[in-house]
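Example record

The entry below shows one chain as it appears in the dataset: sequence first, then structure tokens.
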Amino acid sequence: MATTEPVIAKEKDTHDSDLASRLARTWHQPRGVWGWLSNTHHTAVGIRFMVTAFIFLALGGVLAAIMRLQLMKPENSLLGPDLYNQIFTMHGSTMIFLFAVPMMFQGFGVYVVPLMCGARNIAFPRLNLFSYYLYVGGALVLWGGLLTNTGPDVGWFAYVPLAGPQYDPGHRADIWSQMITFTEVSALGVAVCLATTILRYRAPGMTLNRMPILLWEKLTLSFMVIFAMPAVMVASGLLLLDRLVGTHFYNPAEGGDVLLYQHLFWFFGHPEVYIIFLPGAAIVSTLVSCFSRRRIFGHTPIVVSVVATGFIGFGVWVHHMFATGLPQLSESFFTAASLMIVIPTGVQFFCWLATIWHGRVQMRLPMLWAFGFFFVFLIGGLSGVMLASVPVDTQVHDTYFIVAHFHYVLIGGALFPMFAGLYFWFPKMTGRMPDETLGKWHFWLFFIGFNLTFFTMHFLGLHGMTRRVYTYLPDMHWQYLNTIATTGVAFMTAGILVFLANIFRSKRLGERAGNNPWGDSGLEWGTSSPPPSYNFLLPPTVNGRDALWDAAPDQAVVVGLRDDIREILVTHSLDSNPQHKDEDPGPSIWPFLASVAVSVTFVGSIFTPWAVPYGAPLVIITLIGWLWPHGHSPAPLPQRATWSR
């Protein structure tokens, strides 16, 4: 009996090569330049996010190395104050806005989430592609400014009045403001795509209480991004209006308030820390379960901790402003909140340790990076508890102790899990295994270099070295510690070079991975490596929290989806029961054209407000082309279009 509705079948169609060839033709990903511009499949876009973000990690690292060389000895003349300020601003802006969020939230999320949900593509794939190109546009604007000696020079935070029209004429701060608009609109677009995918594209049987921790984390982060990113866009937008139009939002002489900027910025800025950290924590939860060969201990407490972190993270922003003279009662509330947010993270740590303690740990390469994460993030968390105290924070404010703290938190919470995740999902992306020996060299070089550089900065801060200074006098006696910190950068650079050599070598010559080389339980390992263009021959169903480990020998699969058009099963948000079918729109050049139109409008508004009304018609035209309805194509094939069992 044929049916046009998706149903659950008890036998997989494992011998139907005709089905595979039809799906491959229907879900074909275009190649060449046109394909690169129009391909909307999540695996291609996710890898682009990761590769592009890694390029900016490398560029930001080069800027950090230049600053370290400048500070290695007193009264160094390698950089002048103006160029140092540009490099300082570019380093922070690149690492936060062009690397950390695009890699940890967007890159990993776009690639892994649809596979982990058992879907054939991400929701709103054209919006996803548009978000990538808008991210690239913002990156080009920011780095174009540096290469033309008009790079932002007001810090990655662009505090007013320093960033206002009175103290920073020209367009340097304007470039920074519009870069924020580019990258945050990009993050908002991906957040909508990921949240919708998790809520509506989950495999039948993957109820909310069976969702993997990584999906809970991405769902929580999507809502954090939706609520946090508009705050920094408002902050930078009002700054741009003050500079370009002559408004006075931040001008106290005309009734404005400079602290308004800090409140708006840090209302985004502290959730941003968890938008960077939580993806790493979710990767670690996945690895700990996989390489301990047991189910994660405390699945529900970890999920509650993730959600609690998402809520509490919006209530701690003022601890970045303890030195601004706020009322003491307000400071006490935010001190309490800053201490409270440690608890959910501590719960996750204890659950990871309990999983390892009762498991049979396999010390493979991804797990080695997970242990490195435990060490460095624990140090960053402990110094964070210290800084939650107003007297301690006031004493070390604007010193290198703060630099050490947030690098331990952000690099411990981002880079170590990032490398763990890249090594873990490298077989899924390429079908090849990474080289374990080169990976261990990479780990130890980077781990040693990281701690040499940033642990030393705690002592520099306690010795009074101030942030954001381009040189210092010999009688400050900071040279010895700065030399050690700069030496650590050399170790980290060597580690990154070994990593690149490992990736390029393993991609061509690495051992064949097979479908599930790590023996993990996630649905992403239930298809070939790398996955086909349609992800799954027949979309899977789920019996428990560990989808592959809990799968029955005759595990049910979804049938009834047409193979002549890009149909995707839509399920209920709560119980993931099949509801209806949706059609993937397929490749399109319009998201790229829309991103070009929006980018031209944003860049033009750096110089004149008239760019907005002039650019709006072009944006509208591209959106009409993007959203213009199309019928089913191609026509139904004669072989068969539906299945049942």
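Notes for this example: The chain has one domain: 17-526+588-627. The first helix runs from residue 17 to 26.
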